[in-house]
Structure formats: structure tokens, C-alpha cells
Design a protein that fits this description.
Strand order of the largest sheet: 3-2-1-4-5-7-12
Structural class: alpha/beta
Number of domains: 1
Shape: globular
Oligomer: single chain
Number of strands: 15
Helix content: 25-40%
Radius of gyration: 19 Å
CATH topology: Rossmann fold
Length: about 280
Amino acid sequence: MIDLLILGCGYVGTAVGKEFVQQGKSVVGVVRSDKRLGALKEVGVEPLLLDLRQSKVIEELPEARWVLICPSAGGQDVELYQAVYVDLVRNFLDNYLFISSIEKCVYTSSTGVYSQCHGEWVDEDTYPQPLTERAKILLHAEQQLLQSSVPSIIFRLSGIYGPNRSRISSIQSGEVSLEGKERFGNMIHLEDIVQGVRLLFEKGSSGETYLGGDDAPFKQAEFYGWLIDRLNLKQAEFHFGNNSPEGKRCSNKKIKALGFKPKYPTFREGYESFLK
């Protein structure tokens, strides 16, 4: 039996796998593309090339104590979302040979399942009412796991950023729009996602949902104004309306009660790490 099986070993899954390997754990990471094999081997994760949307290949998965389901659609198509999230989870639950051996399963989802859009605070007790088809699919995948016999935890993540995934280059190139209605944003750094996943495996309660975000939701004007100043882009202009901010603000109080302490409590600390 291995310690950790990661289904969907992309940006987040690879970082989690690396952390667990460094702790002396045995880790197998499943990917759909052979382009990821080298990256996994480099961090000590044993790669397994399988398309988990196909039910028969699930039988090839090794027995594991912990399972991290961390899929990424790689696109916005609704049918792709259905296949990568809902169908994958169903195939796993129906065909994994060692389902009864799982001590805990963590599933990374998204705070996009919440429909609040007037600056409200949301937490794990907020009833999700997804508005888009993609968000409805994400919630359906969550429900499949929570209604199964597998001891599962849902980890709903805010906007993910980290090394090689930030808005710096798009701002410098002018690709990002710096105008529109004011709205709130929520972020979490890759390193803090890894910390959160580890904490949920160690201390999280099965059957529960936890939100993953930093300590400080922000207004767009605040974020872009700070970043433009730090990048010294004097020619860049931004304008967000004086309206009451749209969007939502995500609370991380529940996971902090487990001992979660973000290394990057706001976007400032996270982006400073890229600018040094």
C-alpha cells in the first residue's frame, strides 16, 4: 500500500506530491498526458499515465491509504467539465478495487460554487447555489463523494496563484483589462494549498467542507494599484467603478481552526516573493 495516490497531478497535485515525498511518503501521481511524466519523476512522485475518464483503467490504480482527487479540465467546455469532474469521480467510486482501504480522500473543488455577488462573506455554512453549468458540475462532483462510503473532505479553493502562475506578465504586456466594475477577489498561494491539503489529511473531519483562501479578500483597484506601483508601470492606468463591489468574500476561519497559518496571508506577501 502506498501513502498517497493523486488523481490529476497537474499544477497543484505535483506540488502536493513533492511535499509528501519530502516527508518520506510514497506517492503515485496519475496524469493524462505524457508531458507531465518528467516533472513528476523530478520531484520523486511515481507517475502513472492513465485517462481516468475511462472506467476500465481505474482497476490499474494501486492501493492507497490517502487519495487526493485534484482534476483540472484544461478548458471551459461544459462537456469536458462533465467528463473530468463528475465522470472521473463516478468511475473512481464504482471501479477502484481498494475503495474500502481509503482512510481519507481530499477533493479540491472551487469557491465558484457560490453565487453570492454583492460583496457578501461566504463560508462552509453558506448554501451553494451555482449559477453556471460548470459550477453546477463542480458541486455535483462534490456531492458524489460526500454521499459515498469513502471518508471524504471537500477543499474549495479560491483563485490559485504561485510560481509561473501570476498576473505579472499579463499586466506588463497589457493583456489584462484594467477597467470595469469594482469587485472583490479571493486568492490562495500554491504553497498554502499544499499546507492546507496536508492539514486536512492529518486533522480534517471526513464529511466536511473547508474553504481554502488567504486572510484578506481584496478589491480589484487595491490589487492592481499595488501591483502596478511595485512593477513601476507609470504608464499603466486602471479604473474600476465607484459601485459597491461585486463578487464575494471567502472566509478561511474553519480551516484556520485546524491550525492553518498562511505563509502568504495576503496577495502582497505572495507577489513580493515573485518580485524579489
